[in-house]
Amino acid sequence: MLNQVPFVSVHNMMRLVNGLGVERVLTDLAGYVEEDFRRWQAFDKTPRVAAHSADGVIELMPTSDGISYGFKYVNGHPKNLREGLQTVTAFGVLAEVATGYPRLISEMTILTALRTAAASAVAARALAPAGVRTMAVIGNGAQCEFQALAFKAILGVDRLRLYDVDPVATRKATRNLARYGFEIVEAASVAEAVEGAGIVTTVTADKRNATVLHDNLVGPGVHINAVGGDCPGKTELSADILRRADIVVEYAPQTRIEGEIQQLAPDHPVTELWEVLTGAKPGRTGRDRVTVFDSVGFAIEDFSALRYVHDRVSEHAGFVEQLDMIADPDEPRDLLGMLHRAETTGQVAA
Amino acid sequence: MLNQVPFVSVHNMMRLVNGLGVERVLTDLAGYVEEDFRRWQAFDKTPRVAAHSADGVIELMPTSDGISYGFKYVNGHPKNLREGLQTVTAFGVLAEVATGYPRLISEMTILTALRTAAASAVAARALAPAGVRTMAVIGNGAQCEFQALAFKAILGVDRLRLYDVDPVATRKATRNLARYGFEIVEAASVAEAVEGAGIVTTVTADKRNATVLHDNLVGPGVHINAVGGDCPGKTELSADILRRADIVVEYAPQTRIEGEIQQLAPDHPVTELWEVLTGAKPGRTGRDRVTVFDSVGFAIEDFSALRYVHDRVSEHAGFVEQLDMIADPDEPRDLLGMLHRAETTGQVAA
Q1: Would A333 be classed as within a structural domain?
Q2: Is B230 considered catalytic here?
Q3: Looking at the complex, does the CB of residue A211 fall below 8 Å from at least one CB of chain B?
Q4: In the predicted structure, residue A1 carries a pLDDT above the cut 70
Q5: Which residue of B has its CA nearest to A171?
Q6: DSSP B296
Q7: pLDDT tens-digit readout, B273-303
Q8: Could you tell me the pLDDT band of residue B172, with boundaries at 50, 70 and 90?
Q9: 3-class DSSP state for residue A295?
Q10: Which residues touch B346 (CB under 8 Å, ≥6 apart)?
């Protein structure tokens, strides 16, 4: 049925993820993300198209590997939280380049949370010191637990040190993570949280240029997974940390505008993740170096996620609804004729 | 239900259009298009974002008036026709700028055909000599009948002179239009078709720089509605016609790349449709002048069309399906908790 487009609803995404298990999904997604970053040259890297307003932003993030085309619709409205609405909602479409026909529409609010964590773990696997088991997570909002689970599934991290300015958020994270076998410390400060942690994940929702992590708290060899700073005017790390670190980014032209490195000179050297993953360049240049993955979220990660969901729902029937979205006249030039012929059917169905 | 997004399927779009009547829909759409062009300054005019491949193009066309945000996904794959697929398929989304939440998803293959014809009629109402009743239509593909019906409903055109290189297409158009009370001549050549016609619509599918309409066939006072030339390397009019005409376009930066005027110098004077509609500039500068509406299709027309459908389906319940597309955790920071709570529900529903 070429005129039907499979749709993965929020309900079915939850069934799919719960059915496979969150850790399994994160591991699989990491594989898809790494595979796509390794074939970086195959992708169209269009900048995201943003419509800014006083209250937030609506963005379209398209990319293509020449076989499939994907885009994500995503908004960011911090004030939504006060009205009981989601700050970020998202959906995405995967289409066939050869015909231009959409092949999948999917909710992406949950999927974005999963792919963000998977991408962080892919970068950490290439950058963090081997054998790290302890991670600090500064900021215990919606993304916190997904980061923890991805790092457990992919790197074997099983000791967490959590901190948030709001202790309610930390307790929520601890409660949600209870079943996964972590050893969890709820820290009273950032300084306490980072004690003995080989990986520090910063994922706060602070919308300003804040210094969540000060330079004096970061010891030699630590890997920083900086996830929360992701738009102009929103950063989390002290610039001093960045100046002495090996910095890895998704796509430099975008990260220089949106990432932690907006604090640095526009020509400050950074390495792109695909270069590290393909071995073209080293990520970590020494055992005692500090590494930073300055993550802002990139269209290829969404493409990988849509590709993953498309593969899974093709294997497991029953996770999609078919949307009647593509007009399909018997003769392509006869669109009005199709409307006329639908008069009877329309009345019957109405 | 804020997490549900109303979806207008192809089936429901046909029910809606047949229920209201095609001519009524075209008239209403023309009103929405004119209203939006008159408040031109209110809109974000982002260029369309195109992904080109050997076989075609996939485009995203976003715009916003500060209250609503809309975008259309549309492909163009000429070779699809040979495989029994649509050359152009489209769908669109209307969202609320204040929250970023999608408010409507709609099929747009049919809707694009309607809005293109409505926009042509809006331009012709402002440009064609008063009282014209005869229109030639060169190219009798899918768009032909919609053009005819829009010009009948909005300008009172009731005599048609049809020509296509493929007589099968012309017969199809005549058959489809039989019920609407036109006097129709099937012409054997372009020259025969344009005889006595005050409006000439060119809407061929020729993908090259073709000269469908030669200069010597265009008499004084004629309005040319040039719809078929709409991408780089695809034009229909002799450049000589353009050089002596008053040219009106939707959005000059886009039309200079995609429209008939790609044949002219980049600084050749043109007027934008909104300037004519608001009275800021004249469109037709004299009774004996030739006017050309060089139409390529613009994001605001799609926005008007989505706005129209949104208003109609709000009035007439039963034309939408609700899509469960926006994740809605009880506590926005508790996305993993939402997944956990869905484990039971998921199994029950599965």
Answers
A1: no
A2: yes
A3: no
A4: no
A5: B334
A6: -
A7: 999 999 999 999 999 999 999 999 999 999 9
A8: very high
A9: coil
A10: A11, A14, A15, A18, A19
